[in-house]
User: Which sequence fits this backbone?
């Protein structure tokens, strides 16, 4: 017995019609009379935009004309993502291998399919929106001022990035950004053990200025340019100080040999690194050697002091000898010296008692009595 069934479809609805387990149609707004048994229906609100149903794949493949009339189809391959816009505004991002059917209704649906292998970078204008909608599909990189970013995809270098914020698709590919500092830097080698030519073990601290001038060359030519510079400086120190004695190092204030330093600069220039000043900061001696040197310095200073003292004594004796010779030949000078001596004595006493007259003052006993 046939059954007559009326179906009403509103303006904001669509009805999926299934007859005896087989797809029949998608009903648009209006009134329909359906005859027969085994009829199933499913009502959809087009304001929900996406048609999600087990029959969606069938409609796309087996009913292409119906699908083109009823839906805007957005589909991505294994290496693609799709930007879906609602009335011109980015609203959804489909990852690889996805399909979405959008009802053709009051909202205009447009899409942009991107092949991530040929366009791995997210357009700058869409970075904020993409981060909001599909953060798991992208990776971010921030390159600060004074640095550069080296972009590689699947282990292959692509290009250098200037200062700024970047986003890359993280689907089907593996983007990676390595930061390289382009500013002036210093490297220090503390406590480097060196054996001098006279077999004395010392420790020195070395520092050098350097700057990366070609980040790509620096990263591709050597595994770690900073570590390579560290080793080159170690070798330069050994070549310089190992050929000198401890006395030469301390007396001449030896620095890195210019020829050796030039070799270091030339070697690092091949790796895109410019090396500036290279210098020894400190020379540290073992404890026993410091004590010995302190004793040597003390002895030298004492010898210098003794020499100066002997020179002064000799000069004073020579002066007395010269004065005595002058006084021997000039009695008047002897008298003046006597008066000078008396004047000095008189300044220091309050009363002088002289026995035997003034003439015996300097030849006999002089008695000083304090007041």
Assistant:
């Amino acid at each position: 017995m046939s059954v007559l069934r009326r179906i009403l479809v509103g303006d904001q609805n669509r009805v999926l019609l299934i007859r005896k387990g087989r797809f029949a149609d998608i009903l648009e707004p209006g009134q329909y009379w359906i005859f027969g048994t085994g009829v199933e229906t499913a009502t959809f609100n087009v304001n929900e935009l996406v048609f999600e149903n087990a029959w969606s794949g069938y409609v796309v493949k087996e009913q292409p004309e119906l699908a083109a009339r009823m839906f805007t189809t957005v589909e991505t391959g294994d290496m693609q993502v799709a930007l879906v816009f609602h009335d011109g505004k980015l609203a959804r991002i489909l990852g690889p291998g996805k399909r979405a059917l959008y009802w053709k209704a009051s909202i205009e649906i447009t899409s942009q399919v991107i092949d991530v292998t040929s366009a791995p970078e997210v357009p700058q204008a869409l970075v904020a929106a993409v981060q909001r909608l599909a953060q798991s599909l992208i990776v971010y990189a921030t390159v600060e001022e004074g640095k550069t970013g080296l972009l590689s995809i699947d282990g292959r270098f692509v290009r250098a990035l200037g200062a700024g914020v970047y986003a890359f698709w993280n689907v089907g590919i593996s983007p990676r950004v390595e930061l390289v500092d382009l500013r002036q830097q210093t490297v220090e080698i503390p406590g480097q053990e060196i054996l001098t030519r006279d077999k004395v073990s010392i420790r020195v601290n070395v520092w050098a200025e350097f700057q990366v001038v070609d980040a790509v060359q620096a990263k591709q030519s050597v595994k770690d340019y900073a570590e390579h510079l560290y080793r080159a400086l170690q070798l330069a120190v050994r070549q310089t100080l190992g050929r000198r004695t401890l006395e030469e190092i301390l007396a001449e204030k030896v620095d890195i040999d210019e020829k050796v330093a030039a070799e270091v600069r030339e070697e690092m220039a091949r790796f895109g690194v410019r090396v500036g000043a290279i210098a020894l900061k400190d020379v540290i001696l073992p404890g026993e050697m410091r004590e010995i040197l302190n004793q040597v310095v003390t002895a030298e200073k004492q010898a210098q002091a003794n020499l100066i003292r002997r020179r002064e004594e000799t000069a004073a004796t020579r002066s007395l000898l010269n004065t005595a010779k002058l006084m021997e030949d000039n009695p008047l000078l002897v008298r003046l010296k006597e008066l000078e001596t008396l004047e000095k004595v008189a300044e220091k006493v309050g009363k002088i008692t002289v026995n035997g007259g003034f003439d015996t003052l300097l030849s006999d006993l002089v008695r000083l009595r304090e007041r």
In short: The two ends are 163 Å apart (CA to CA). The longest strand covers residues 201-212.
